[in-house]
Amino acid sequence: MHDKASNVIAARPELSAQQAELADRVARNTRKDGLTATVVPGLALIRASAPSQPLPSVYHPCLCVVVQGRKQAQLGEEVFVYDPLHYLVVSMTLPITGQILEATPAQPYLCVRVDIDPALVSELLAQLGPAAPARESTTRALYLARTGAPLLDAVLRLTRLLDTPEEAAVLAPLALREIHYRVLTGELGERLRQLCEVDGPAQRIARAIERLKTHYADALRIEDLAAAAHMSPSSLHQRFKAVTSMSPLQFQKQLRLQEARRLMLSDGLEAAAAGHRVGYESPSQFSREYRRLFGAPPRREIAAVRLSGA
């Protein structure tokens, strides 16, 4: 697939030139592997010098534009592979398993990540006016679309501002506005539009997700969650699974395990304390579910991560 991507880009000179400059700029602004924050709010750069093992993590609403290499994101049983031909959009907070598929020290995986700003999306929608009525949507809050020259041009102009930070405060909002516009008017922009539909199904699910994020350690009562989302329990369950590929309980479980892992890695908590902190009463249940998600019991998996320096 990487060869296919290279061939297609080479056949479109405008993409080839943009990709080459983007790759150079991302490489120059990432000194080491991992996520690099930038002086531009909402813009981050990602670099990896080798393929990775699958790693569950929580993705917040964002746009990911790969400029070199290849990565996959798994949501439930669905796998989304993105490369320089395709960009990834995550329109709601989701627990996703990511894996870098193609990367070497000579040609590292390079990616530009732009946070999605719901207020900016709403502002653009007010200017764009109403779209044609959408069909009943059961689509995921994660999708791939083909990368085009206009979007790449806006992303490139945004990354150029890393060399002139004194101009970023004025010019970055313009580039970010255009990036959001290109996604909204792209082939799958309707999905992002639905997120800002006042009291629409997508916005109601977004409210349910937000409640789960802030109350992940509490016992889950579907009736309370449905009331917060202004939906019936059965409708909430059906739509929540359509958008996220998992039930609210499964979603909460992943949020709990992700936070427990962060507490162990960043704060040095022992497994039992971390499990209790995120809402587990049984250490054995916590260890069992942690192993199912991360592939090893908490103590062993955290030790392996620290040993690898990840």
Topology:
Blueprint: H1 2-10, H2 13-28, E1 34-37, E2 43-48, E3 55-59, E4 62-68, E5 70-75, E6 78-82, E7 86-90, E8 94-102, E9 109-115, H3 118-128, E10 142-146, H4 149-160, H5 165-184, H6 189-195, H7 201-214, H8 222-228, H9 233-244, H10 248-266, H11 271-277, H12 283-294, H13 298-308
Antiparallel strand pairs: 1-2, 2-9, 3-8, 4-7, 4-9, 5-6, 5-8, 7-10
Helix pairs in contact: 2-4, 3-5, 4-5, 7-9, 8-9, 10-11
Keywords: Transcription, Transcription regulation
Domain HTH araC/xylS-type: 206-304
Organism: Lysobacter yangpyeongensis
Textual characterization of the structure:
- The protein is an alpha+beta fold and 310 residues long.
- It folds into 3 domains: 2-194, Sandwich (Jelly Rolls), CATH 2.60.120.10; 195-250, Arc Repressor Mutant, subunit A; 251-308, Arc Repressor Mutant, subunit A (Orthogonal Bundle).
- Helices cover 51% and strands 19% of the residues.
- The chain has helices spanning 2-10, 13-28, 118-128, 149-160, 165-184, 189-195, 201-214, 222-228, 233-244, 248-266, 271-277, 283-294, 298-308; strands at residues 34-37, 43-48, 55-59, 62-68, 70-75, 78-82, 86-90, 94-102, 109-115, 142-146.
- Strands 1-2-9-4-7-10 form a 6-stranded antiparallel sheet.
- 37% of the residues are buried.
- Mean pLDDT is 89; it is low at 4-12.
- Pfam families: AraC_N, HTH_18.
- InterPro entries: Homeodomain-like_sf, HTH_AraC, Tscrpt_reg_HTH_AraC_N.
- Residues 206-304 form the HTH araC/xylS-type domain.
- Keywords: Transcription, Transcription regulation.
